[in-house]
Amino acid sequence: MESISPIFSKFSSGNGKSLSEIHRISEENKVKTYNEIPGEDDGTNIRCYDCRNKGTIAYYDEETGHIGIKDCICRGNRLTVKRLKRAGIYDSLKTKRFSTFETKTPSQLAMKQSASDFVPQKYFDFL
């Protein structure tokens, strides 16, 4: 059985480019178009120039010849903010910190110490 590619290559207007090259260029243009489209406001107030506020970035996979979508580095923060807002505790995180927790009683001091022991030290600036 004869392959159809050589037959179509006679009618191609790809300026001497192979079908695989034309396919690659087409897919890369789709990736570029997707990545240039700005995302909608998701209510997180996170502005990202890498993904244009979509949370994902398209890429062309040379090995498979397909387009893929990967999470942007801002996606984790976007999801966290959305979850905190949905739980109703996002605004309180601005003022509720280990440093502002009042320990007027021994039980409050014990709670703060237990929480401090549980949370790694590297997060203390955030909390």
Keyword list:
127 residues; mainly alpha; 4 helices; elongated
The ordered H/E elements are: HHEEHH
User: What count of helical segments does DSSP give?
Assistant: 4
Give me the count of strands: 2
Low-pLDDT regions = none
Mean pLDDT: 86
Please estimate the helix content: 25-40%
**CA radius of gyration:** 26 Å
Q: What is the molecular shape?
A: elongated
Give the strand line-up of the largest sheet: 1-2
End-to-end separation: 69 Å
Largest sheet: 2 strands, antiparallel
Strand content: 5-15%
Helix-strand makeup class? mainly alpha
Please describe what this structure looks like.
It is a single chain. With 127 residues, this protein is mainly α. 39% of the residues lie in helices and 9% in strands. The protein has 4 helices and 2 strands. It has helices at residues 5-9, 19-36, 75-87, 106-118; strands at 56-61, 66-71. The protein has a two-stranded antiparallel sheet with strand order 1-2. It is elongated. The chain starts with a helix and ends in a 9-residue tail after the last helix.
